[in-house]
Amino acid sequence: MDAIRWEGNTLYLLDQTKLPVTEVWLPYTDYRPVADAIRTMVVRGAPAIGVAAAYAYCLAALAGEGLDEAKETLAASRPTAVNLFWALERMERKAKECGGAAEPLIAEAKAIHAEDVAMCRAMGAHGAAVVPEHARILTHCNAGALATGGYGTALGVIRAAHEAGKVNMVYCDETRPLLQGARLTAYELVSDHIPATLIADNMAASLMAKGKIDLAVVGCDRMAANGDFANKIGTYSVAVNAHYHGIPFYVALPCSTIDLSLADGSGIPIEERDRDEVRTLYGTRTAPESVEVCNPAFDVTPHSLVTGIITEKGVIYPPFQENLQKLFG
Ligand SMILES: CSC[C@H]1O[C@H](OP(=O)(O)O)[C@H](O)[C@@H]1O
């Protein structure tokens, strides 16, 4: 399963706002609508928006347009996932090296894409080792093939554990307000014949209290140097409830999601999204039009609630500040 393709100097994005009902691939030959696609979550997920932005940068080069302006436009699409900025800075370095020539830039974007899939598979292998036999796993939002270049981070761990015969059940939070869990994670798990049970977000704690959950694993949009991390809103609740119930809580991410420039999670920019994402559900109004709304797309989980950090280089345990730094030599 994938969400991003590059064919014939055209970027194709699977429109994730239409899943799971219809699979619609949208073509892009201009970088500007790709920025809109990131903003409107046609493509979403930290690594996936980095890969999409890298290809969009190539579209600007192919059109002979200003690469600085392209980078600025793409970087302004969403503020939290550091992979977006990491990918654009890597493309800018390549552009300086090759004088902005399209072909080397396309090769670089393809390398970013392929490396992301490889990192997800490595993460999956490392993560599967911490999953117990007959595991009943809770996950939140979508950190799967649709959120990455392919295979997934948290879902990559689940895929690898399933391949090792270790998965009894995956409980996926529907993940309000945009239902990435219901629409995307359940779609991925059902497509891969991995046992899945969809739950409303507010059911997770009672499942833990009943002893139904053995481990939780989630994705990440940005991690600070001390291991505090931002992920989809509701992740903090999962972490607090897992901690209370003594359930191992893991976060899976590529090293490109770690932002060592931030000492702790207080510096992570949290995207505030449109209020109607909470007041409506697929175009149907579910709350008074005039009611005030708070709609942060992410929350920050303190490293003190994290059991381990699953990366493509291995599983990192506390002390996170010291052990994360070692990942970067
Ligand atoms: C593999 S990172 C996926 C990460 O991104 C999601 O956010 P969004 O759907 O708003 O892009 C969510 O936080 C996932 O954990």
CATH topology of the largest domain: Rossmann fold
Question: Which cofactor or ligand species appear?
Answer: the ligand CSC[C@H]1O[C@H](OP(=O)(O)O)[C@H](O)[C@@H]1O
The level 1 CATH classification of the largest domain is Alpha Beta
Largest sheet: 7 strands, mixed
Mean pLDDT: 97
CATH architecture type of the largest domain: 3-Layer(aba) Sandwich
Q: What's the gyration radius in Å?
A: 19 Å
Query: H/E order of the elements?
Result: EEEHHHHHEHEHEHEEEHEEHEEEEEH
What structural class do the secondary elements suggest?
alpha/beta
Question: So what's the overall shape?
Answer: globular
Number of separate helices? 11
What is the CA-CA span between the terminal residues?
Answer: 33 Å
The count of strands amounts to: 16
List the strand order in the largest sheet: 6-5-4-7-10-15-16
Question: CATH superfamily membership of the largest domain, which one?
Answer: Translation initiation factor eif-2b, domain 2
Short synopsis of the structure:
It comes from Flavonifractor plautii 1_3_50AFAA. By secondary structure, the chain is an alpha/beta fold.
List strands and helices in order, with pairings:
Layout: E1 4-7, E2 10-14, E3 25-28, H1 31-39, H2 46-62, H3 67-75, H4 82-98, H5 102-128, E4 135-139, H6 154-163, E5 167-173, H7 180-191, E6 196-199, H8 204-209, E7 215-218, E8 222-224, E9 229-232, H9 235-244, E10 249-252, E11 258-259, H10 276-279, E12 280-281, E13 284-285, E14 298-301, E15 308-311, E16 314-316, H11 320-327
Parallel strand pairs: 4-5, 4-7, 5-6, 7-10, 8-11, 10-15
Antiparallel strand pairs: 1-2, 2-3, 8-9, 9-14, 12-13, 15-16
Helix pairs in contact: 1-2, 1-3, 2-3, 2-4, 2-5, 3-4, 4-5, 5-6
Bound molecules: the ligand CSC[C@H]1O[C@H](OP(=O)(O)O)[C@H](O)[C@@H]1O.
